[in-house]
Amino acid sequence: MPENFPEDFLSRCARSIRTMNTKYSQKDHAPSAIVVVTHAGSCIGMAAAATGRQIGEINPAPPCGIYALTLSDAVEPAEKTAIWDMDSWEVVDGMNGYAGHISNFSEETFPWNHFGTDGTYSGPPKDYEVKSMPKKKYETINSS
């Protein structure tokens, strides 16, 4: 990577969220959507930056996973990064790394949240179970 990981990478994710908040400001909180399609690390980094949560509160990013964030009524988007809400990692079938729409995972692909030292797991407690992922996949998470 061309930057120090994870510190500089996560800072870049936060800058991206601030830029989107400014460019696509929702001053009147009109219904709208911003769809971001990216790799697992950016999904987690941007979800954490947008909601003000720690990396350990973001579910691992499954292949084609969905992180649905809703605009908070607390602050105007251009003023602060943490103005979005998202389901807790504990919500069964919640939109914090949702994968219920995927019927088949490749054996080589697994949910990812590895921002720890030397690429170690950094997501929610390892004993959690993502109900929307096949059992084999969350066993892979727990063994990392």
Can you put this structure into words, describing what you see?
By secondary structure, the protein is mostly helical. It is built from 3 helices and 4 strands. The chain has helices at about 5-25, 40-50, 135-144, and strands at about 65, 70, 85, 95-100. α1 packs across α2 (about 40-50). The two termini are about 20 Å apart. Residues about 135-140 have low confidence and may be disordered.
Tell me, rounded to a whole number, the average pLDDT: 78
How far apart lie the N and C ends? 22 Å
Largest sheet: 2 strands, antiparallel
| Strand elements, count | 4
Spans where pLDDT lies below 50 across 5 or more residues: 137-142
Share of helix among residues?
A: 25-40%
Label the overall shape: globular
Specify Rg, calculated over alpha carbons. Answer: 15 Å
- Following the backbone from N to C, one meets helices and strands in this order, namely HHEEEEH
Strand order of the largest sheet: 1-4
Gist?
The chain is mainly α. 26% of the residues lie in helices and 6% in strands. The longest helix is centred in the first third of the chain and has 17 residues, at 7-23.
